[in-house]
């Protein structure tokens, strides 16, 4: 039997716990009320105006069922608006609001600080290698996920 610290799944889960805690601490301290998933969704909509919820789910690797709740909360906060699509009556297009843009600009220093804190135990070269290997491992397993990352 091997120690949990030799198991990538355990280490990935621990790093996710730490990353989420750091994100929340930095964002809360800066006076913002966004979760990591809400931030990812808001950023994706800002970068891809008028995308539908299914495309958004793929862009941030989030399951299509749960993305509705994330979008609902961002709409309630006045950060996104949802419009019926002209191309597909069943779909909703998403747009970031002026307030959503203001939040993204304002929150960015806290998000950047969180990223630095997450990697603070590594040298810059180690952090670069870690990120490259993490991207490589994620790409290799992407299709095994319940919510694979998809291009726009």
UniProtKB/TrEMBL annotation:
Keyword Transcription tagged: yes
Going by the UniProt record, its keywords in alphabetical order are: DNA-binding, Transcription, Transcription regulation
**Gene Ontology MF terms:** DNA binding; DNA-binding transcription factor activity
Top-level taxon in the UniProt lineage:
Bacteria
Which SUPFAM superfamilies does the UniProt record give? Winged helix' DNA-binding domain
**Which InterPro entries does this entry report, sorted A to Z?**
HTH_MarR-typ, MarR/SlyA-like, Tscrpt_reg_MarR-type_CS, WH-like_DNA-bd_sf, WH_DNA-bd_sf
Keyword Nucleus listed? The answer is: no
Question: What Pfam families does UniProt report for this protein, alphabetically?
Answer: MarR_2 (PF12802)
Residue intervals of the HTH marR-type domain: 8-139
The Gene Ontology biological process annotation of the record reads: response to stress
Return the PANTHER family for the record: TRANSCRIPTIONAL REGULATOR, TRANSCRIPTIONAL REGULATOR, MARR FAMILY
Q: What is this protein called?
A: Transcriptional regulator, MarR family
């Amino acid at each position: 039997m091997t120690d949990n610290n030799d198991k990538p799944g355990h280490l990935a889960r621990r790093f996710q716990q730490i990353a989420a805690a750091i994100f929340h601490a930095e964002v809360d301290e800066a006076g913002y009320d966004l979760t990591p998933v809400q931030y990812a969704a808001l950023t994706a909509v800002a970068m891809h105006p008028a995308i539908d919820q299914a495309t958004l789910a793929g862009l941030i690797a989030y399951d299509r069922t749960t993305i509705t709740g994330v979008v609902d909360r961002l709409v309630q906060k006045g950060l996104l608006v949802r419009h019926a699509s002209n191309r597909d009556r069943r779909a909703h297009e998403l747009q970031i609001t002026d307030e959503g843009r203001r939040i993204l600009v304002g929150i960015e220093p806290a998000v950047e600080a969180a990223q630095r804190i997450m990697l603070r135990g590594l040298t810059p070269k180690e952090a670069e290698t870690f990120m490259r290997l993490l991207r490589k491992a994620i790409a290799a397993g992407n299709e095994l996920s319940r919510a694979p990352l998809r291009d726009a």
